[in-house]
Design goal:
Layout lengths: L4 H11 L4 E3 L7 H12 L17 H11 L1 E5 L10 H14 L3 E2 L1 E3 L6 H10 L4 E5 H4 L9 H10 L3 E4 L12 H10 L5 E3 L7 H10 L4 E3 L6 H6 L7 H6 L4 E2 L11 H9 L5 H15 L6
Parallel strand pairs: 1-2, 2-3, 4-5, 5-6, 6-7, 7-8, 8-9
Helix pairs in contact: 1-3, 1-12, 4-5, 5-7
Length: 294
């Protein structure tokens, strides 16, 4: 099948999963998504390599595909690259969540005047997860404007998926050191490190070991595509097993240069066992977001 849905279903059924929970999927206003795709098509400076978009479809077909895969919950990861954009994106995301009940209501932020106000509004409107992209946004997670926001989200127990690793290209504010400073001030922040912290895998795993509320998502990690660029160190594989309750499936759908099932196969070939896979692909996220297990 062109979309690979049969392969995903077979993977899910073999593991006996009630469904897949993907914490890192992208839905955003169509005009914004088209610009993102154009950036990948042009091999922009943050990628610098050929990056075909496998699931370049209209929104409704992309939703149908996730459901055909058996994805029962997913997110609408979206992010601003300049001031004055986040509140508008949050309005779109609230509407999207309202018409898409299997999407976890997603919101975003940017260090700017008024950020605490619109983040609080998003929380009160039912946001379940936030997205922070330090690389695209080119901002410091330790910006004083964000400090009350991190406190608010930590208090509310709302996870933040943060692109803070230095892959595919380092940013001014990426890397484990600034995140370590952030967590020292907000140790209860439910931070989900996107892409397993690629390429600083070991350092972000160490932060997860130090802070019980830190998690990592698998987005693009362990795939053939990423292993060519930033291979996961074989010596760190044991830590993946030890932190098995705090690793969550993420894929970057639809903006991936390979079929969806390849992310799942890449996790399976780590050889960490079916119980680990079931936790990563469903159980861990179900517990974090207090979703039904069945």
């Amino acid at each position: 099948m062109e979309t690979g849905s049969d392969d995903v279903v077979r993977f899910r059924e073999r593991l006996g999963l009630p469904g897949i929970i993907d914490v890192h999927t992208h839905f955003m206003p169509e005009q914004v998504l088209r610009k993102v795709w154009a950036y990948f098509d042009a091999a922009g400076p943050l990628t610098g390599l050929e990056w075909p978009i496998t699931y370049r479809y209209e929104e409704e077909r992309r939703l149908d595909l996730l459901r055909a895969f058996g994805v029962v919950r997913f997110t609408a990861m979206l992010y601003p690259h300049k001031p004055g954009m986040a509140r508008w994106l949050n309005g779109w995301a609230a509407d999207f969540a309202g018409r898409t009940p299997d999407c976890l209501h997603t919101a975003t932020l940017f260090p700017e005047e008024g950020v605490e106000v619109y983040v609080k509004e998003a929380v009160e409107a039912g946001a379940r997860v936030f997205k922070s992209h330090l690389q695209v946004g080119a901002y410091d997670a330790n910006d004083p404007l964000l400090d009350p926001v991190w406190g608010l989200l930590a208090e509310a127990g709302i996870p933040v998926v943060m692109h803070c690793g230095s892959g595919p290209a380092p940013g001014r504010f990426t890397g484990p050191e600034p995140i370590g400073r952030l967590l020292a001030r907000h140790p209860r922040l439910r931070l989900i490190v996107a892409h397993m912290g690629m390429p600083e895998y070991a350092e972000f795993l160490a932060l997860a070991e130090a802070y019980p509320e830190v998690r990592l998502d698998t987005t693009m990690a362990f795939t053939d595509f990423s292993e060519r660029l930033s291979p996961f160190p074989a010596a760190e594989r044991g830590r993946l097993a030890d932190l098995g309750d705090r690793i969550l499936l993420g894929t970057d759908f639809p903006n991936i240069p390979y079929p969806y099932v390849h992310q799942l196969e890449a996790l399976e070939r780590l050889g960490l066992g079916d119980a680990w896979l079931r936790a990563v692909c469903h159980g861990n996220a179900a517990a974090l977001f207090e979703l039904p297990e069945g």
